[in-house]
User: Fold this.
Amino acid sequence: MKRRRIPLSTYRLQFHQHFTLEQATELVPYLAALGISHCYASPLLKARPGSTHGYDIVDHNLLNPEIGTPEAFDHFIDTLHQHGMGLILDIVPNHMGIMGSDNAWWLDVLENGEASSYSGYFDIDWEPVKDELRHKVLVPVLGDTYGAVLEHADLKLTFDNFKGEFNIFYFNHRFPIDPKEYPRILQKCSDKFSQLGTDQPELLEFQSLVSSFGHLPGQLDVAPEKIVERNRDKEIHKKRLADLVSRSAEISKCIEERLKTLNGTVGNAASFEELHQLIKAQAFRLAHWRVAIDDINYRRFFDINDLAALRMQDQAVYDATHRLVLEWMNQDKVDGVRVDHPDGLYDPAQYFRRLQSSFSALTPCTEAIGSKTCRFLAIEKILTGGEHLPDWPISGTSGYDFTNLVNGLFIDATASTKMEAGYRAFIAEQLDFDTVVYNSKRAIIRYRLASEYNVLANQLTRIALARRHTCDFTLNGLRDALGEVVASFSIYRTYVTAEGSSPEDRQVIEAAVALAKWRNPAMDASIFNFVQDVLTTRIAEGQNPSYRDAVIAFAMKFQQFSSPVMAKGLEDTAFYRYNRLISLNEVGGDPHKFGTNVAEFHRANQDRLEHWPQTMLATTTHDTKRSEDARARIDVLSEVPSRWRLRLRHWKRMNQAKKKMLGGKDVPSLNEEYMFYQTLLGAWPEENPQKEQWQALRKRVELFMLKALREAKENTSWVNPNKEYEEAVASFVKSVLTPGRKNRFLEDFVPFQKYVAGTAIWNSLSQTLLKLTAPGVPDIYQGSELWDLRMVDPDNRSPVNYDLRRKTLDELNARPPSAELVRELLETPEDGRVKLYLIFRSLNFRRQNPSLFEQGEYMPLVVEGGESEHLCAFARRNKDGVAIVVAPRLVASILSEEGESPTGAEVWGETSVVLPENLKSSNFVNLLTGEASKISGRLLIADALQDFPVALLTNITPKNGNNARR
Assistant:
């Protein structure tokens, strides 16, 4: 089978030491039979040992040895190609994993400071405001204060006999000693040998070598020739030292004695002074991890200390980090990439242009249909507040925009007021979402990203001081105004560059400033005006080059700050504080928007086909807060708000005695309890848990609640865990989820849960079909081809039972589509076969007709009749024919009995799809049931959904038979 280089569909695989390339290779025949065109792999480059996600890369030019060898990688690729499949690779340009002892670039920076060849690779501020950190990098890694750690002898000076180098170790963290400072360690040995008056050649050479170390160029000697000299000579000197130690017992013994002396004696504080002075002389400052909040001077990935940001705007950094990936692409092993966290980059557009330039040099490089790139390039861009994707040379996003669009179809917009009232009544307070987000962002600025915030404020102050009209603005005033503007941003970031700001950028900035002014009427409005003019770079127009450069640099660095503030404030704080309907609290989601109407869904699909036909369509990813099927269950609550409110009232009363009192308050809080019940509805197994399954369920829910509590940062947090509070919540979860005759809650909860889950099955099937047939590239997250009820990571990275999936697909593949088959599947929908069947049939039709889905016209279809509001229908058409898609929505109110499926005339009556004149009468086949029919003018829903709750009909003659056999 000929391989496509532009994906028609993708299947996400999470690689780590427990899921390797060898295991992925075994899956390829299954994925090919399912209809997948490309595996979409998590990062494959060398990550920190034990990494479960691969985003903490420590070497961009090595395959991760924990997932396999280069030979295993080649075998994986060969197997993909043999099955007509390809590979899309997740890449990480924004940051690298540091700490530990495995990132050679970072270790070189620690050893050599600004004289390191890699000092410009990382986004380090070598000239911070704090004098103590000038020309140093703060390393916030210690578990206690520096003095306490030092005097507990947890900082160990060691000598590597083979390499001839000294290091400080803090458990598994290595900190290389500046070779120019080796004389601090070795000089006393040299003096000792001098006093002995020995003429041994090794000892004389040793004395000379100590002097040579001391004459190395220093860390501030950053002239290119000095850096070359230092890097060359220090390694020569180290080799000489290693050789001398191997030949001289006296030298080896003396170094051992020096290490013992320098490493001090616990209980004798003075014995650590010499080691302290040695550490002070280094290019790094070791500190307690909490110090990072205020003093860290390297940019991080969000607020994660052991992920250091890269200066990807530097061509040398780009070249060094993309060498292997581009080599794989040139060797035809990788067909395209997905770029992680592009909003963290200094200049995303520049980065995408560089990638395109690199792609253009590759062979083969085929022009993709309707694309701006000759290789597939998706980006993890999160669009909010009506934001549109900039006109970049990319294929599209990784699909969060579609996640929220399609999910909205299954939320009853008319229930917004009732859901809000029920939420407010339960938690006994009124939460305004905008206020929650604002407060969350302010907390992130103050408590998690204060250091980056201070750096920006100081830069802004220097810009203000440079002009007489702004020099009276104080640091505090500017700092406060800047924080208010960031907290008022409606999107993750703008994209101002040296060329200036776009109208869209200016609109966002001006709106944020206006909102900040409104929230702070007592603050000087002229300061806000100044901030606005700097962020838009308008203030730099006509100014001298140095002033202009400072303004542009500030505006662009600001954008790298607003993005993590939004991500941490919205996704990782507000979405765990505001729980009205948690299926709306998804990455890229907006709880303001309570539902998506069908017309809006159609418009979005038409726009995507016109502008971004190759963007990804996701419903579950490794980063979603909850899986697609769990989300579909929670959506059902919007269809039964009164019933939901009544159940909540009962559960609250039933479980009150299971709470504990801490500080005069019940634990968990009412808001946390409200989230807990929704979480249970979403995550509850398809079949009621038995014995050991209860423990597994409790553990999953406990871990979710712990993460949710810490992310919300109201009663505990990652930084300051409140163990007593967390244990009280865990106790509540355990008590509520302990089966027995006395547990009235479970007796009441399970029937309601079964009703919600049964109704949600139809949501899930419709959502799946819409994803597989709408314009774009549908993505399936590992394991979600059967019902996927997992929650946020680490739950969503749990092992997948592929043996079950392979066996199920084999059974389905052995039978042609028929009404008998689908009725059989609907007898036990809880086993998930019905979902796998839908995916299998739809993807194989998609694979047989790629142009229909890549280029085919998207035609919204009008639905008429009594149940028209409960359907979404459209057609895809090209010269070969047409495919008609019919998907029910919001079916709870039209199903007369619990457990009933939305099929047949009793449900749909005379409701019908009106076919436009350009869809002439034709013979259609329902690809899901195998039934043929002639349709003329109207498609009666009762016929289309006679046996199966969704329909995919076509008049295209099947190619190569109906089934895709392995």
